[in-house]
Design goal:
Pfam families: 2OG-FeII_Oxy_2
Largest sheet: 7 strands, mixed
Number of helices: 5
Protein name: DNA repair protein
InterPro entries: AlkB-like (IPR027450), AlkB-like_sf (IPR037151), ALKBH3 (IPR032854), Oxoglu/Fe-dep_dioxygenase_dom (IPR005123)
CATH superfamily: Alpha-ketoglutarate-dependent dioxygenase AlkB-like
Number of strands: 13
CATH topology: Jelly Rolls
Domain Fe2OG dioxygenase: 96-192
Strand content: 25-35%
CATH architecture: Sandwich
Strand order of the largest sheet: 1-11-8-13-6-4-5
CATH class: Mainly Beta
Number of domains: 1
Shape: globular
Structural class: alpha+beta
GO biological process, one term: DNA alkylation repair
Radius of gyration: 16 Å
Length: 193
């Protein structure tokens, strides 16, 4: 479903089945450690946040330490389960992704304010994002006029932010205590140009 914005952006509410989404959520929460919520910025500053993070990546990036854990947080090569989802996302989008940023939000008291994804390690012109677990509100805000578009992200849904989305819009996952359960976001990213 096209979101009708001044950029390429779409929402697929049932990208994967509820069974697939629940199985992947369980795999991630059972195999990853989301308890250490501190990481070191490129400036050397240590930051503490109210969510957990893990990065999956291609074997070559991991072997060459292209995204060092002391800067980016916990990292590993793709698990089999995440690799299967990555391949499905690649087939759906027609784009190849070398990195997946996995963020765990324990409940509605954790979220992220308005921002645009900056070019930290690769092209941000096309970023798909898979939601698992608790349904959460996701908001896109036009940088010029402030108009907001809100979507409830369902378990197993995929938001795709494409051409001009990072340039013209900011996005947020607002904190809201009405959400009582955990959510995981898998954002697929490109490495390099």
């Amino acid at each position: 479903m096209d979101l009708g914005l001044s950029c390429e952006a779409s929402y697929s509410p049932e990208f994967i089945t509820q069974g697939e989404a629940n199985s992947l959520f369980d795999h991630l929460t059972e195999t990853l450690d989301f308890t250490n919520h501190t990481f070191k910025l490129g400036t050397g500053e240590v930051v503490s946040v109210n969510f957990g993070k893990h990065m999956f990546m291609d074997q070559s990036l991991f072997d060459e330490d292209k995204l060092p854990a002391q800067v980016w947080g916990k990292t590993s090569v793709w698990s089999d389960q995440v690799r299967l989802i990555k391949e499905k996302v690649e087939l759906f989008t027609g784009h190849q992704f070398q990195v997946c940023v996995c963020i765990y939000y324990p409940d509605g008291t954790s979220g992220v304010g308005f921002h645009s994804d900056f070019v930290a390690f690769g092209d941000t012109n096309y970023i798909p994002s898979l939601s698992l677990g608790e349904e959460r509100e996701f908001v896109l805000r036009n940088k010029l006029n402030g108009k907001e578009t809100s979507i409830e992200l369902a378990n197993g849904s995929l938001v795709t932010m494409g051409n001009k989305c990072q340039e013209l819009y900011e996005h947020a996952l607002p904190e809201n205590p009405k959400y009582k359960n955990a959510r995981i976001n898998l954002t697929f990213r490109k490495y390099g140009n």
